[in-house]
Amino acid sequence: METSRRSFLKLGGLCALGLGSLPIVNALAKTETSPEFVANPRALTAKRWGMAIDLKACWEKGKPECKECSAACHTIHNVPDIGNPQQEIKWIWTEPYGGVFADMANSYLPGDLAQKSVLVLCNHCMDAPCVRVCPTKATFKRSDGITMIDYHRCIGCRFCMAACPYGARSFNFWEPRGYIKTELNPTYPTRDAGVVEKCNFCEERLAVGLRPACVEACNKDGRTMYFGDLEDPDSEVRKVLAVRYSIKRRPELGTGPSVFYLI
Amino acid sequence: MKIYDGKYILIGLVIFIAMATFPIWFSHGKAAPPPDPKLDTPVINQMPNKQCVLSKQEMITGHMQLLNVWRTRVVRDDKRVYVAPDGKTYDMSLQNECMKCHSNKSQFCDQCHNYAGLQQGVTPYCWNCHIAPKENK
């Protein structure tokens, strides 16, 4: 068969045009189907959730044994009370200042500062060591900065517990259902024996437009905990960080905690 | 034809066949009742159009895949609302959405799971963590 160069190039051009139209056809076809999965429109969203805890206000609130924030958190999330400090499960709790800020403490701290209780929880680090070591990607980083555990996927190897420099993670040595002393919250699951758990910045509450339980419980009387988007200069947490001096736990490790302490 | 020790062999054979076929004749006519998942919960009874997320057939054969996809979307992608083919939206939550209608776990989920021989608390292990609604038995 004889083909002139001219008709061969014409045919080639037509073929190229046909192949090039595939993305256009795909795009047209896609617009017809509705999205199957969408985010809740009421959800609170951020680029990076963060928290600031006013230590002075927390101490000045007077009640030395105030446990409102942790009580609220542990009730809502069905956190068991094991009773044995070696196997206890905790999402938000207190530790003495001398331990929490051991790298900043010196021998001549004023008064009983070293013994004062500091509220601690998961720091939702920007470069979280727990995420890096998790072999099953059960612990992962959400796009809004929350370090989250997929309990379905956790195999209980506890690498994350070894990696976390803040001791923010607890392991379920036992079936936790029997140890839940508070009234069971029927809208939130419990955990199973053999998984690691920790604070989730109340992602299930953020998803329906509520702020974290500890912040809500604490701020009923006075302003102690600030929560918001660290990337948004107008958020309440950024506003307070702009006017008050703040510290983070063990910044030298480079984990980039999202929990700040106002002093 | 002469079988040496034929008496003992035959007795042994009869005993062997009787024992080997024991499960067949022992359970003959005693078939386990077929599963009968109940839909008569207060919420379902009040629904004018008794329609689940997908069609009944799709739910029977594919509810486990659907739940698995929902789990991934909610936990990993933070997408919590499912848009069904008929345009209705559902909160993707086993504990808070599925069980709102199917509040009779023992009469609904367990019916088929037990019939299929799935071991309670092992497969599926949903209820080790997710809290089943309280039932008035």
Can you walk through the features of this model?
The complex is a heterodimer of chains A (263) and B (137). Chain A is α+β, with helices and mostly antiparallel strands. Chain A is built from ten helices and eleven strands. The radius of gyration of chain A is 25 Å and the shape is elongated. In chain A, the strands form four sheets. Chain A has a four-stranded mixed β-sheet. Chain A has a single domain (49-262), classed as Alpha-Beta Plaits. Chain A starts with a helix and ends with a strand. With 137 residues, chain B is mostly helical. Chain B has a domain at 35-129. In chain B, 47% of the residues lie in helices and 4% in strands. Chain B has helices at 6-20, 22-26, 42-45, 56-77, 94-101, 109-115, 126-129; strands spanning 81-83, 89-91. In chain B, strands 1-2 form a two-stranded antiparallel sheet. The interface between A and B is medium-sized, with 28 and 23 residues.
How many domains in all of chain A? 1
Rg of chain A, alpha carbons: 25 Å
Q: Strand order, biggest sheet of chain B?
A: 1-2
Intertermini distance of chain A: 88 Å
Helix-strand layout with pairing:
The complex is a heterodimer of chains A (263) and B (137).
Chain A: H1 5-20, H2 22-30, E1 37-38, E2 49-54, H3 55-60, H4 68-76, E3 92-96, H5 97-100, E4 117-121, H6 129-133, E5 139-141, E6 147-149, H7 159-163, E7 170-171, E8 196-197, H8 203-206, H9 213-218, E9 225-229, H10 236-243, E10 246-247, E11 259-262
Parallel strand pairs in A: 2-11
Antiparallel strand pairs in A: 2-9, 3-4, 5-6, 7-8, 10-11
Chain B: H1 6-20, H2 22-26, H3 42-45, H4 56-77, E1 81-83, E2 89-91, H5 94-101, H6 109-115, H7 126-129
Considering the chains and any ligands shown, give keywords for the structure.
heterodimer; A: 263 residues; alpha+beta; Alpha-Beta Plaits; 4-stranded mixed β-sheet; two-stranded antiparallel ribbon; 11 strands; 27% helix; elongated; B: 137 residues; mainly alpha; 7 helices; 2 strands
